[in-house]
Amino acid sequence: MAGRKRKMLALGETAAPGRDVNKRVNKSDLNGSHPEPKRASTCETDRSAEAERSRYFPDNNPQSRLGEDFFSQSCISLAKALLGKVLTRRCADGTELRGRIVETEAYLGGEDKASHSAGGKRTERNTAMFMKPGTIYVYPIYGIYLCMNVSSEEEGAAVLLRSLEPLQGHAAMRQLRAARRKEGARQLKDKELCNGPSKLCQALDIRRCFDRRDLASDPEVWLESDASTIPVETPSVVAAPRIGIESHGEWAQKPLRFYLRGHPCVSVVNKEAERESGNPAKHSSPTEF
């Protein structure tokens, strides 16, 4: 009996890893993660990657996931509050890609002539802008690229995520970006992986199907706070005109783009805005809009 018992225990120990693997697979299924095979394998190439320390922030200690309360604020306030927060994308195999938000743009809804919801217009495309705060709004540009926005508490108002500082999963991000570039193109630098609204969607595999999802509860993409997040009213935050809306008159000049001064991952630096933001007397107030 003793010999048989030892044999049965040995068999049980051999089978245990298989049961653990099955549990992980089932958990992934419950999360509803069913990406295309090619993209799933991309994340697998960086399976063993650990969180990397930011080169531009003193701390990189992961904190809690941001919930509904965080998103329930005005569009301008949310655009500033998002700076320093970490966008996280979980792949099918459990690998997580992370990038710190360093640049945003606020689109204020009905009164904002540059907004997709200008005049209070609601369409099939911009429905997410009218949904509860924290709803993801993903839309295509030029027919092939995507941009990711986050709705705020105001009707039809949302914040565009413009640039990230890559923190975790660099190899997977580089492979995802390379898939959309010409064969033989030079390898991207780390700071070039997510320094634009469409680039960050490519690098984190943000898809069109993420439109209208809830950042506070979605199992595949969410936002995290971070110990190194800076206060939004410090001189480190630059307020500048938004990019690519020159045809919208006075709204093209409103300082509704916010970025971290001196950060190498910012998409476009505005020297004039940086000089003005360094002068407290010239700081713009949200009430001016």
CATH architecture of the domain at 68-232: Roll
Give me the count of strands: 9
Average pLDDT for all residues: 80
Structural Rg = 22 Å
The largest β sheet comes out as: 9 strands, antiparallel
CATH superfamily of the domain at 68-232: Methylpurine-DNA glycosylase (MPG)
The amount of beta strand, in percent, is 15-25%
CATH class of the domain at 68-232: Alpha Beta
Low-confidence runs of at least 5 consecutive residues? 1-41, 44-62, 280-289
Shape: globular
Look up the CATH topology of the domain at 68-232. Answer: 3-methyladenine DNA Glycosylase, Chain A
Number of H/I helices: 7
Helix content: 10-25%
Separation of the first and last Cα atoms = 83 Å
Q: Please write the string of helix (H) and strand (E) elements.
A: HHEHHEEEEEHHEEEH
Q: What class would the helix/strand composition place it in?
A: alpha+beta
